[in-house]
Every structure is written in C-alpha cells, then in structure tokens.
Design goal:
heterodimer; A: about 80 residues; mainly alpha; 3 helices; elongated; B: about 500 residues; about 75% helix
Amino acid sequence: MTTKKSSGGLISGKSRSVLALSAFVAAILSVWGWVLPMISDVPTIRKSIDETQRMGINPAAVFYTDVYETTNLPEPLWHSR
Amino acid sequence: MENGPNAETSAENVSQAAGRDAAAKSFWTEDICAIALGMSLIALAILAAFVWGEATSGHFATPGKWSNDPWASMVGKGDIPLWKSSLAAVVTISLLAIPAMLLTRRDNKSGAPLRIFAGFWAVAALATAAFVMAGQEVVKQYGFEYVLWALVLGLVISNTVGTPTWMRGAVRGELFIKWGLVLLGAEVLIGKLLLLGVPGILVSWIVTPIVLIVTFLFGCHVLKIRSPALVMVVAADMSVCGVSAAIATAAACRAKKEELSLAIALSLCFTAVMMVAMPMTLRYFEVNEIVAGAWIGGTIDSTGAVAAAGALMGGDGPDAKHRADRAVKIASTVKIIQNILIGVIAFVVSIYWAAKYKTDDDTGAAPQKPSFQEFVHEVWFRFPKFVLGFVAASLIASAIVASGSEGESLVGLSIDEITKNIRGWLFCLAFVCIGLETNFRTLLPALSGGKTVVLYVCGQSFNILLTGLMAYLVFGWLFYDAVVQWLPSGTTP
C-alpha cells in the first residue's frame, strides 16, 4: 500500500482506506440501528410486516424450504409445505 | 513468439495434456470435495433424524429476525438460543471445510493451516454480520436476502483496506457454493411437482422454460451481450426462482463471480419493487386471488417474496385474511413447483455449456470434426462434476420421501432442522468470499453498458405477460373448480 500523500493533504493511502471502511461501518450502524427501526413503525409497513409474521412467512427466503418460519402454520397454509 | 502453426499447435496440445494429467492426478478437486462433504452431511443428518427424531430440533440454525435490538437475532424464541445453534452450525462446517481447504489449496503460503483456520473464522464472523443485517424486519420484509449483505460486506473490505493476505487461503467461494448446492439438491424433492397437479405444471414447467430460452436468445442475439454465461444467469434468476436459481446456474455454466453478483443484485432490487407493486396492481384491477396467486408465483423471482406478495393480496375488508391465505397458498405452491425445476435447469445448462463452450482451462484448439468418443470425452472433461452430487442428492431424498410417510418425515426433519441451515451458512460464507475477491472495477463490464438491465426488464415483462395469460387460462378458467376444491375451505383462526 502506497504511503504517498495526496497533494496538499495529510492523509496517506492506507489511512484513506481505513477511513473509508470506518465511514461504511458507521453508516451501517446508523441505518440498522436507527433508520430501519423508525421505518418499521410506519403504519403501512408495520401492517405488512405483521401480516407476514401472522402467516409465519419469511419474505427473504432463498428456497421454498426457507419460506415458512414455523411449523405452527394457519391450517390453510399447512399443506403447501 | 512465433514458431509456425504446427509447432504452436503441438506445444498447445502438450500444455493442455500436461494440465489434464495434473488434474487427473489430483483426485481431490473442489467438485469431488463438495460432493463428498455434501453427501456425508446429508447422510449424517438423515441418520440423526432417524436416531433422535424431534430431539434434533433447534441444534443448527442461522441468526433470526429482529426489530430494534440486534441481539434478539441471536436469542430467538426456542429452548436453544440462536447464538448457540448458529455456532454449532459454523463449528460443524469448519470441521469439514478446513481439511477440505487444506486438501485443495492452491499454494502453500496462503494455504498454511493456521492462516486457513484464522481466515475461516474471519469469513464466518462477516457471514454472521450479514445474517444479522438481513434479519432486521424491514430489510427482511422487502426480500433483501442475506446473500446480498454478505456480498456487500466482502466488497467493502476488498475495495477499502483490501482482503488481508492471512485470510486469502480461506476465501473459497466456489467450494462453499458447490457444497451448498449439493445440500440444496436434497431439498429438490421431485414429488412436489404434483402438489398442484396439472395447473401447477402448466404454469411452472411450461412457461418457465419458454421464458428462460427466449430471454437467453434475446440477450445473446438481439442485445448481443458478450458473455452468454451472464445472460444465462440473469435469465435463470428471473424466470425460475431468483437467487437459488442464479447460484445453481452460475455454477453450472461457470459464470464469473462478478456476473453472479450482478444478476443477484439486479434481481433483489426489482423483486423489492415487484412484491409491493404487483399485489397492489392486481388488487386495484380486482383480479381474483386464485389467478393473482398463480400470476405472482410464476412471476416474482424470489420464493420468500412470492409468499409475502401473496399475503398482500388480502387487502382490507372482512374477507381479507381468507383471500390472503388463498393467494399465499397458490402463489407459494406454484413457486415450489418452479423451485423443483432448478435441478433440471442446472443439469441441462451444464451439459449444454460443456458441449458448446470451452472452459478457461481449455486453451488448446478443438480437434477438427471430433469423433463421438472425443466429443463425449470433451464434454465430460468440461462438465462441472458437482452437478452430479446435486442431482444424486435430489434423487436419493426424493426416493426416501416416496417410500412412505416415515421416509417423508425423516427427510423433512433432516432438511428443516439440519441441512437447510447449514446450506444457508454455506451460501452466506460463499458470498462473503465472492465479495472479498471482487474489485468494483470488474463489476462495471458485467453491466454491459446497461444492456443487462434492459435484458432483465424485457425478460421480466415477457414473463409477466405469458404467466398472466397462463394464470387466467389455467387457474381462472380450465381448472378453476379443481383448484377451488384443492384449497382448504374456511377462514384462518
């Protein structure tokens, strides 16, 4: 990794990389720690989350075996497992 | 350096032959390791289910969902905290993966045992973070799967501070993917084909191959996208069942990791939009929930998003829950039948690719007019061997299920409680590795100047139209009464 300083700046290439990574980590912590929990309280979003949870559905399922998060399904859905 | 055509061809043939000899001497290739690891784990899981039955429940898991407190993803609601069962899954993988990595390492420096051990656990830590990110309920609700976050975390590290040298020996994305695919094979239960009878097969197995082939031809011959592998992965992702189809197809046609990454990112972004827009539009036009369920199931890429979109078909009113349940049941069943298509697609694509396209290792000139024996030998050489493990796992699990209710519950328990969770960890580890090996600059060519997005939009539009037509014809008219009888009556409790 080069330690050449940017013109007129004091930050080396390696420090810039570490700063970039730190900024990303800070962004993730902010979004996941604060923004997303706020969004989950928006009424329409809350309603759709509650509906999928009522049905025991995993909207982020990769394969059909991941779709139902519980074996305690409402009766109409049981037979599609 | 030019030595004349005959000498050059002869030198290339010798080099190619030497490469094949070396490959033949090393029996333990990644494909063979993936098959051995996958089949062993499936056998052990079935044995554990046979010996301990329901007591196997909860011992292997992935981090769960959370709303405001990320630690909730590590606790869960069961008797065994999720952090313990997640750790058990990762330890199990490490006990098998680390020896496999040592056996198939590319060089001795990055492949030193201590580096592989430390590197594996670093990759596992990133995979855990990806699961936690994916578990936040808003992220989960809109179908942004853990593979996306695994990729993002890997990409950020590799494109900022760079992947540390000590980790590189354990960055084995292909091994994890192939192993995960062999485990996935056990979940491809052929009997599920008949869940919905003829209507399900008509929508899932007639429309899907047509959309796949038309999209592939469109991408290669109309848009003239340079990489046929990229076109195939996008076509499979969009027409079959999203991320799992993209992974299986990419491995079958040896697509580049940048191409797989782009296809998945594209699919998840459009899926998040479609899972809200499609049920909203169908409710606005008062489409019957049975037709809507079939339409959603055959169109939206991701299996989880299909179920969630079906749930949104309920709308408002006293009958909302009943409509939602019916739509979810139809949509998810159509999607399950499409999921089963993965096995056939992966097998057919791998044979087609081996016959038509050379691999990166295949540098020699193809013999002029090969004999049938030479052609078969060439195809076998290029064929991705792990696909055999994938197909074998599917056939064995399907046969055990078909043997009776005891076999069905044995396979069901081993999949639900053991193999599908380990498969999830393997895919997550794989995508962290892919991110760690990918430079942002290599992603740009995969976009093909925007043609990839055009391919997806055009293919998905065709998919929506054709699936809609088939859904109305089959579920709305020809087999409507049979489907209504198949649906359980009554409202939910």
